[in-house]
Each structure stands twice: as structure tokens, then as C-alpha cells.
Design a protein that fits this description.
Keywords: Membrane, Transmembrane, Transmembrane helix, Transport
Order of helices and strands: HHHHHEHHHHEEHHHHHEHHHHHHH
Number of domains: 1
Helix content: 55-70%
Pfam families: Xan_ur_permease
GO molecular function, one term: purine nucleobase transmembrane transporter activity
GO cellular component, one term: plasma membrane
Distance between the termini: 54 Å
Family: Belongs to the nucleobase:cation symporter-2 (NCS2) (TC 2.A.40) family. Azg-like subfamily.
Strand content: under 5%
Length: 533
């Protein structure tokens, strides 16, 4: 069989110091990864970027709803729903967030690949940004703490994670949670994200109702209640932008996914956006208004460097407010479940997880990179960074080393200079993507133990309360509280009766135990044993 040019390139790179650092096949490294080839890694990195790139516009769209550092001074309209000056300020925040999202995704993905040698892309996480915006800061700053204070919580979270990562406690803290609750939190966040995608922040299919809590939306602006955006008097489901988002950003994207088109979500977003860019159409994103003119003027630049003006280094460094710590604790818990679970699952998918220790190579470095990136992201004005499950697309393409993540990082870096394009993606273009990502996240409910009410009911309460309360923390509290109450009483009765009084289906429960190692993780036990024996 003849040797192709690709084979020669792969062999030459593998035999270099670069190839040995990343354990490419043929490098001679004792831990070389079978099937890892340089050109394959590049293709895998671009595939991962294509699957992840939607986060640039989606993250900016969600976080901009918080209002960022913009201050609402209208006493008659406390959330400045109709204040044009405030709207212009929020538009600037959105542009800053485009730059921030692309930049921190580039930095974190590059570091994950270069230092941890893992084929995993990083970026601000969906779910975490929704919690940051709608549960902590609130729509246009109507929440429990300000945007600046929330960034302070995120910054401190990163350094706490850094210490926990060095001690190896993040893995242990994840294993201590009942498995059904861990799965339910992730699935509940999926429902939350899908609900946002269906609401006025996305497609607009679901809107407010003056009688019920929610109702059908999708009406045109002239059919809404005066001063209540998203609340329809009549004419539901008649919005042309809503139907455009459903068909191109939703149905068309799903069809592309069925036929395994790479980057289907990103393609769907851009098709919807391109249709929305002409100014003289019913679905235009640039209406002939003052705000529309401002958006269109920025869009015409196409390629430009947009500096981070309003949200860079905007942290309020005062940690005396109790609600800042409340937000911090919830960020810690949710991010532990999110990032740790994703890293473990992606390492297992790539064949890099040790079947004995259940750990993966360079796990401590990977968690430290994640923690460092969280704090750097806070300095740049964004919610916590996390590992992306979309990394599975690049791994499926053959990505096995950190080169995949480095290529993904470089692709995000190039996106920094296309801010006008990503800033001009309308909410109805990203709404379908949010619904699809939510559908991917909820499929893990199959792993919940539905056979025993002590596991099923707390998991279900977590699932349902997260989207309905618009708050991840409330869902977690409901799940943990109900789990302790429902399972604590049978446990006490069992102990008091010496095993005679137990529920009829008790043998179907998952059970719960403290993971081995306690506060001394596996790697510390091994180190201590090696030192003293």
C-alpha cells in the first residue's frame, strides 16, 4: 500500500517533540494513544468548534438579559423594559459579551489541550449562565444581587475550585451525592434551558398570561398588552419571526442532525440569521428604528476588534453581602456536578478513564485549568466556564489528545474578530438551539431510579421545580430536602427496629454510602502508602 502525503505528515509530527508531548501514535511515548494522528486531531478540533460555536451568540444573549453593568434609573419602569437609553447600553453589553465568550472559550480550550492533553472544549456553560442571569442578577438587574457582585461570587468560586482540585476533593464531592439527584439536576437544567428557548428570550412560543402563570405567546407587538412585553391579548402564534425560528432553527436543524451533518446547530442558527438580516422583510433583525439603525451600523463592519468596555474587570470586590455567598454556594454545587460529570463522561468516551480508579489521566491538571478559567472569565465579565458535552462530536471524529482542544481554541480566537456577525444573531435564531440542547440534556432521566419512590420523587421534584421556579438553586434544595425527609425516616425506623420495619420495595433503592477515601482522596492515599510503606 502506498504512503500518502497525510501519512508522511502524521509520521513526521508524531516523531517530533510535539508528538511526544501529546502522546501521538508512533511517538514512542510509553502512554501513546492508539489511533491519535495529527491531521485527524485537527479535523476533530474543527468539528468540536462547529458543534460549540453557537455558545458565542447564545451566551451573550442570555447574559445580556441581566443588563450587565447598565443601571436602570427609571422609577416608573424599574426594569427599563421600554427605556431606549438602557436598551442601547444593553446592546453594548451584548457586544462585549460576544468578545468575552469567544476569548475565554479560546483561552480555556487551549489550556485544556496544552496542559491536560485532553480533547475537551471549554466555554461559558449553558445552565450556569441562565442561573447567573435569571436567578441571581435577575432580568435587567431585578434579582438578589447586582451583576458586579455576581461576578465576585464567580471569581471566588474559581479559586475555591482550584484548591479543591489540588486536594482532589471535587471528584469525592461529586460521588457523595445520590446518583438519581445528580442526574436530575442535569436534566432539570436541560428543561430550564429549553423553557428559555421557548420564551420571549428565544422563539417566543411561550409567553406571559395575565390569568395563568404561562400561556401561548408568539403574537405580534401590536397584539401585546401595553407595557407588558411577551403578554399576548390575542393573535397568538402569528409572529413571523417565531415561525422562522421553528422551521429553520428547529425542524431543519433536527433534520441535519438526523443525517449527521457536522455543526448542524451552528448551521441552523446562521441560516435563520441570514434570512433575518435583510432590512425590508417581516422577519428583519434591523427594523428602521433608532435601535435597529444602531444594530445595523455595527453589523456592516463585519470584521472588527470590539474591545470589552462595559463588563471588563467590573467585579465588586466587597464580599460582606450574605446573598453573594448564597450565590457562591449554589455556583459551587451546580458547577461541581456539571464540569466534573462532563469531564468524566468525555474521558470515558475517549477511552482515557482508568477502569480501576475511575479517574482519568491528568485529572488534577484538568480541574485546575477549569478553575483558573472560571476566575479569568469573571474578570472578563462572564458566568462560569465549564467543559462542553459537544466535545463528544470531536472525539467521535477521532480526537484523542489535547491537539483537538487546541485547534478548537484557535478557532474561537478567530471568532473574536467577527463580533459584528455574532452580535447580529437574533433571539429567534438561538431559541431553537436552546430547545435542542435541552432535549439532549434531559435524556439522562433514563438513569434515574424510577422503581423506588425514595429516589424517584426527590429526582422528579428537582426536575420540575428548576424550570417552573426559574431557579436552579430552588430545584436543588427541593431535591436534597425531600431526599433527606423521605429516606431519613425509613432509615431511622429500620435502625430502631433492627431491620424489621422497612418499605416493601426497599431492596430496589439505590442506597447511599460515603465514598471511600472520605476527606483523603484516592491519589493522596496512594501517595501516603508509598511514602510510609
Amino acid at each position: 500500500m502506498s504512503i500518502t502525503w497525510a501519512d508522511r505528515i502524521n509520521a513526521r509530527v508524531a516523531n517530533s517533540a510535539f508528538g511526544r508531548w501529546f502522546h501521538l501514535e508512533g511517538s514512542g511515548h510509553p502512554k501513546e494513544r492508539e489511533g491519535s494522528r495529527f491531521l485527524t486531531e485537527i479535523r476533530a478540533g474543527l468539528t468540536t468548534w462547529a458543534a460549540m460555536a453557537y455558545i458565542i451568540s447564545v451566551n451573550a444573549s442570555i447574559l445580556a438579559d441581566s443588563g450587565g453593568t447598565c443601571v436602570c434609573t427609571n422609577a416608573e419602569d424599574p426594569i427599563c423594559a421600554t427605556d431606549q437609553d438602557y436598551a442601547n447600553c444593553v446592546a453594548e453589553v451584548n457586544r462585549d459579551l460576544i468578545t468575552t465568550t469567544a476569548a475565554i472559550a479560546a483561552l480555556s480550550s487551549f489550556l485544556m489541550g496544552a496542559l491536560a492533553n485532553l480533547p475537551i472544549g471549554m466555554a461559558p456553560g449553558l445552565g450556569l449562565n441562565a442561573y447567573f442571569t435569571y436567578s441571581v442578577v435577575g432580568f435587567h438587574g431585578s434579582g438578589i444581587i447586582s451583576y458586579r457582585e455576581a461576578l465576585a461570587a464567580v471569581f471566588l468560586e474559581g479559586w475555591i475550585f482550584f484548591v479543591l482540585s489540588l486536594l482532589g476533593l471535587r471528584q469525592w464531592l461529586t460521588r457523595i451525592m445520590p446518583q438519581s439527584l445528580v442526574v436530575a439536576v442535569g436534566a432539570g437544567i436541560g428543561l430550564f434551558i429549553a423553557f428559555i428557548g421557548l420564551s420571549s428570550s428565544g422563539l417566543g412560543v411561550i409567553g406571559g398570561d395575565t390569568t395563568n402563570l404561562v400561556g401561548l405567546g408568539g403574537c405580534t407587538a401590536d397584539n401585546m398588552y401595553e407595557g407588558l412585553s411577551g403578554y399576548c391579548q390575542h393573535g397568538q402564534l402569528r409572529s413571523p419571526t417565531m415561525w422562522l425560528g421553528i422551521f429553520t432553527g428547529g425542524i431543519l436543524t433536527v433534520l441535519m442532525m438526523l443525517y449527521r451533518v457536522k455543526g448542524a446547530i451552528l448551521i441552523g442558527i446562521f441560516i435563520t440569521s441570514i434570512i433575518s438580516w435583510p432590512r425590508n422583510s417581516a422577519v428583519t433583525y434591523f427594523p428602521h428604528t433608532e435601535s435597529g439603525d444602531v444594530l445595523f451600523d455595527f453589523f456592516k463592519k463585519v470584521v472588527t476588534w470590539h474591545p470589552i468596555e462595559k463588563i471588563g474587570n467590573a467585579i465588586d470586590w466587597h464580599y460582606g453581602k450574605g446573598k453573594v455567598w448564597y450565590a457562591l454556594i449554589t455556583f459551587l454545587y451546580v458547577d461541581i456536578l456539571d464540569t466534573t460529570g462532563t469531564l468524566y463522561s468525555m474521558a470515558k468516551f475517549a477511552g482515557l478513564r482508568d477502569p480501576v480508579t475511575l479517574d482519568f489521566e491528568n485529572s488534577t491538571i484538568a480541574y485546575c485549568v477549569d478553575a483558573f478559567s472560571i476566575s479569568m472569565g469573571a474578570l472578563m465579565g462572564t458566568s462560569p466556564v465549564t467543559a462542553f458535552i459537544e466535545s463528544a462530536t470531536g472525539i467521535s471524529e477521532g480526537g484523542k489528545t489535547g491537539i483537538t482542544a487546541i485547534v478548537t481554541g484557535f478557532a474561537f480566537f478567530i471568532c473574536v474578530f467577527f463580533a459584528p456577525i455574532f452580535a447580529s444573531i437574533p433571539s429567534w435564531a438561538t431559541g431553537g438551539a436552546l430547545v435542542l440542547v435541552g432535549s439532549m440534556m434531559i435524556r439522562n432521566v433514563r438513569e434515574i431510579n424510577w422503581d423506588y419512590a425514595g429516589d424517584a420523587v426527590p429526582a422528579f421534584l428537582t426536575l420540575i421545580i428548576i424550570p417552573l421556579s426559574y431557579n436552579i438553586a430552588y430545584g436543588v434544595i427541593a431535591g436534597v430536602g425531600s431526599y433527606i425527609a423521605i429516606n431519613g425516616i425509613p432509615w431511622l425506623l429500620k435502625k430502631a427496629s433492627r431491620g424489621r420495619i422497612v418499605p416493601a420495595t426497599y431492596d430496589l433503592s439505590e442506597g447511599w454510602t460515603i465514598p471511600p477515601g472520605g476527606l483523603m482522596p484516592y491519589w493522596m492515599l496512594v501517595s501516603a502508602r508509598t511514602l510510609f510503606l
